[in-house]
């Protein structure tokens, strides 16, 4: 039920019609309206009494679960609070003109966070979104957090101005028209001196990204398909993840990356790029490395796999390894890779993600575990490109299960105490590998299994009971 209706009931006493809520101080009434968590519902409380009509424009937060884009400007124009701590708006099919009209109003009063999500029509293509013009992004001098998800609408960056308080910035599904260099300039220490966290995902038109920041601590870049040049100069950066970036995976020599982050503790590098074009500065403090391997026969992919192995040899002292192994849906004929993997005795946490596409992954996963004898915690994720993966069968002659000694060979994981398994579907290959784990882990104390949402409760219960039959009674198995 609408909370404004509930307030109406509470505001009138059982006898005499006395308005009890309106007798409360303004700051307490405003706090009550903030708890509504919907600016439209808060405005509807004006029906309670004349005094309530002047309260909602004083709200320090404006939340709109869904609002017509042309109404946003009117709401902000009527708002009277000197400092807004939050603007949250989800709107459909907004035009750059309508958004550009009210964003400057928001920039003047916002001293906290803005979260704007634009949902596009499903029938509208990305190319059509390009022709709609650009949203003019004003300078938010006092904002601490900016999160923009624009449905591939164009974004025009401000040529000047300092985002003095900005600590977190997230840009998703945006178009930059001839402004590649402008994003790096905007995020520099001169214009964003307080920036700590940066996420840029699915940004079109970004062929060059050069950032120099003294304050940045955490950065994620993903799906920047047209990126050709990446330069990161961030002396304080602790965490960096770059995934599915760069221009052309079939011509990785066209891209260049230069990373200088001497304080980095966590590096995720999942890209196909010419190794000789990638310059990673000394990372003496690195503790976690994230890479991916492709079980597919292609020259450029093979060079990528070799480069990932080179990174493992370079950073043998890391404590956490985040490894994704990808199997193509077609026949698996790629070279066997794991014999080039170094022994990693300092690994205590292993995050192993598998995109199997119906293939057996036990041989490669076995070899990874064999090279990490000191692992204490294993996170095993069964990722999927298709909801029908469990129906996919290996084609005749597939070598994905070679060599088969992993099914019988002994493996002593004498430190492994905790295992978490995510998105388990209960396929034959998944079950076979999890079953073998019980024979390799003499000190296992806890296992948690989270089944994929496509599975049935009865199937999850059946698999859990079957796994329990292989487990020591001292092991705690929970199913989520």
Automatic annotation (TrEMBL):
SUPFAM superfamilies found in the cross-reference section = F-box domain, RNI-like
Which residue stretches, if any, does this entry annotate as coiled coil? Answer: none
Question: Could you tell me which InterPro entries the record lists for this protein?
Answer: F-box-like_dom_sf, FBL15-like, LRR_dom_sf
Q: What is this protein called?
A: FBD domain-containing protein
Whose protein is this, by species? Answer: Lolium multiflorum (Italian ryegrass)
């Amino acid at each position: 039920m609408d909370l404004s209706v509930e307030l109406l009931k509470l505001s009138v006493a059982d006898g005499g019609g006395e308005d009890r809520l309106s007798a409360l101080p303004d700051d307490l009434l405003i706090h009550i309206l903030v708890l509504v968590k919907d600016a439209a519902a808060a405005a509807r409380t004006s029906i309670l009494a004349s005094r309530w009509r002047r309260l909602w424009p004083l709200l320090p937060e404006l939340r709109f679960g869904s609002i017509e884009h042309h109404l946003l400007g009117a709401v902000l124009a009527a708002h009277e609070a000197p400092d807004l701590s939050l603007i949250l708006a989800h709107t459909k099919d907004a035009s750059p003109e309508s958004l550009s009209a009210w964003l400057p109003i928001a920039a003047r009063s916002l001293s906290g966070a803005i979260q704007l999500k634009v949902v596009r029509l499903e029938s509208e293509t990305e190319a059509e979104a390009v022709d709609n013009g650009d949203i003019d992004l004003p300078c938010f001098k006092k904002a601490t957090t900016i999160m923009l998800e624009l449905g591939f609408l164009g974004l025009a960056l401000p040529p000047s101005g300092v985002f003095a308080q900005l600590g977190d910035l997230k840009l998703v599904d945006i178009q930059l028209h001839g402004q590649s260099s402008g994003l790096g300039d905007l995020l520099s220490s001169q214009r964003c001196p307080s920036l700590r966290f940066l996420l840029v995902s699915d940004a079109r038109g970004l062929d060059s990204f050069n950032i120099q920041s003294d304050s940045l601590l955490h950065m994620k870049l993903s799906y920047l398909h047209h990126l050709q040049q990446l330069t990161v100069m961030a002396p304080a950066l602790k965490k960096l993840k770059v995934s599915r970036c760069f221009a052309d995976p079939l011509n990785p020599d066209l891209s260049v990356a230069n990373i200088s982050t001497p304080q980095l503790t966590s590096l995720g590098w999942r890209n196909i790029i010419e190794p000789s074009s990638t310059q990673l500065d000394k990372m003496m403090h690195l503790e976690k490395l994230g890479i991916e391997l492709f079980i597919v026969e292609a020259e450029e992919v093979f060079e990528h796999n070799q480069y990932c192995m080179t990174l493992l040899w370079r950073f043998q002292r890391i404590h956490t390894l985040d490894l994704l192994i990808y199997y193509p849906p077609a026949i698996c004929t790629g070279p066997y890779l794991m014999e080039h993997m170094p022994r990693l005795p300092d690994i205590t946490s292993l995050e192993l993600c598998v995109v199997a596409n119906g293939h057996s992954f036990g041989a490669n996963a076995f070899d990874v575990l064999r090279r990490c004898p000191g692992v204490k915690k294993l996170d095993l994720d069964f990722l999927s490109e298709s909801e029908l993966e469990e129906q996919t069968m290996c084609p005749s002659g597939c070598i994905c299960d070679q060599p088969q000694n992993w099914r019988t060979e002994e493996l002593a994981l004498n430190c492994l105490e905790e295992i978490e398994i995510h998105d388990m579907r209960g396929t034959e290959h998944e079950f076979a590998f999890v079953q073998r784990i019980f024979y390799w882990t003499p000190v296992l104390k806890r296992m948690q299994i989270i089944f994929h949402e496509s599975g049935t409760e009865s199937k999850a219960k059946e698999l859990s009971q079957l796994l329990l039959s292989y487990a020591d009674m001292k092991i705690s198995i929970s199913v989520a």
